[in-house]
Amino acid sequence: MSEEKQNILAGNGDGKIASPQKIYLKDVSFESPHSPGIFTQGWKPNLELEIDSHSSQIADDTFDVVLKITATVTVEGNTAFLTEVHQAGIFILKGFEPDKLQRLKHVFCLATLYPYASAALSDLVTKGGFPSLMLPPMNFAAIYDQRLQQQTQSKGGEAITTQH
Questions:
Q1: Long-range interactions of 42-47: CB distance < 8 A, separation 24+
Q2: Cα-Cα-Cα-Cα dihedral sign, residues 141, 113, 51, 49
Q3: Are 63 and 57 a contacting pair, CB within 8 Å?
Q4: pLDDT tens across 67-115, in order?
Q5: Which domains does the chain possess?
């Protein structure tokens, strides 16, 4: 673990803490509308992935962050399956300025939740009778920076903070 990440998790004496308290599965769904016929077709899947998130403050310095991933796989124009996972976590985020707090929710928290969401999706897909779904790695820091830059440009150069 990098020293910077270790200091954030454990706190480094400056009163700043970023720490997951509970990781949990909030909601899941799986649909295979064209089964069993879809199993007789050649398997040349097309994956469409949607990722979203939201958070809410549940107490002082305590946030519930939810990562929503929807995966739709089609084969020859037919939906093989559609699955969705809402992976959530309760995080202590203490002592950070508003901009840094937003970044932590969009980068640190989502990066913490992503492996759990990915595993849950793969498990659902496998239990549905399909080959396991291996999601690509996500660079939440780059995604956050890109969105922040796009928002700054669309606001005429003034800095803004994203809201959950």
A1: 42/75, 42/76, 43/75, 43/131, 44/75, 44/76, 45/73, 45/74, 45/75, 45/80, 46/73, 46/74, 46/75, 47/71, 47/72, 47/73, 47/133
A2: positive
A3: yes
A4: 999 999 999 999 999 999 999 999 999 999 999 999 999 999 999 999 9
A5: 18-154 (3.10.420.10)
